[in-house]
């Protein structure tokens, strides 16, 4: 391929992983281009790019600038890929292929199933077209003001597949969802085009209920592969999608350390972060910085209840991060609401150490409550939170190695 540059066109792109994906796919130059609506005409007329992806809010707006459209783009009425040709921009829609990929990967059988599509924006058009071609039906679009909306959603509680195409739950406003999955007792599949966080609140509810589900990372990589093939002019093997998804998932995931007070979370976490080349964040230090006082002082003035409220606020902020190593306080598992905050983008490691070896200095509960009592209260909660359990009774390096191997 001759020396050409590509990019992503949108309005707000700070969260995008597209440059990393295209670097892994083909290695060509790929940059982000944030353009205001009034600048769109000038940008498309003057950019030297050989091709670009298009995201919110311009998937429909670029249609008039296209000299030709693919069958998919013409049918859907939305473009997410532009390729420069001698005649002008050629517009395609690879979101269609991306969504089909995550449906097939999830194992959700949409054939003949009533399906709710939340949202009516550009992404929903591609999703509806893919669902139609896969035999789903009836397909109902839900919007804020349309005939089928969030006020009268109860009329569709018999839906069997739920698809979120809205930004609800997307970073930085994580925790939101278009609906409660539990309100749909016949639900057999939940799909979400959001990819950051990896597990939206919508998907985590499906996970808790044991319902097959899939997030937007697979769609993002699969549609990028389809775009890259046009940019490069040659095919890219299917297996690259899974390889890149695996790589990105590891890079996006926080490594979160939980465990008893004094078990070595901060020490191991700092060393692990240096080895991984990631930032290290200590939840207790963040709490102290925000409160302007030490944790013992917080306990003295506000009690454990006040401290736990502060802790959850900090974990809500830290849990939205990507690619960090985070050490938590020993009691964070005592509040179930902390789990989704950590799980949304996290790989959670329970660091274990013998009770008689736990450090107690600066840990209020450890000074007033026997370690055995605290451990018995928390043991099952640590196990429920954890994706991996690592022993930290031997050399520190052994624990670091064990975690490093798991997250590579």
Nutshell version of this structure?
With 408 residues, this protein is an alpha/beta fold. The chain has helices at 18-25, 40-46, 71-76, 95-106, 122-133, 201-209, 216-232, 239-252, 265-276, 283-291, 295-318, 338-343, 364-368, 371-385, 396-407, and strands at residues 6-10, 30-34, 51-54, 66-69, 81-85, 88-92, 115-118, 139-142, 161-164, 189-192, 213-214, 254-258, 280-282, 325-327, 346-352, 388-391. The strands form 3 sheets. The chain has a 6-stranded mixed sheet.
What does this structure look like?
This protein is of the alpha/beta class. It has three domains: 6-92, Rossmann fold, CATH 3.40.50; 97-214, NAD(P)-binding Rossmann-like Domain (Rossmann fold, 3-Layer(aba) Sandwich); 253-407, Rossmann fold (3-Layer(aba) Sandwich). Helix content is 41%, strand content 17%. The chain has 15 helices and 16 strands. The strands form three sheets. Strands 2-1-3-5-6-4 form a six-stranded mixed beta sheet. Strands 8-7-9-10-11 form a five-stranded parallel beta sheet, with helices on both faces. A five-stranded parallel beta sheet has the order 13-14-12-15-16, with helices on both faces. The relative contact order is 0.10. The model has no long low-confidence stretch (mean pLDDT 94).
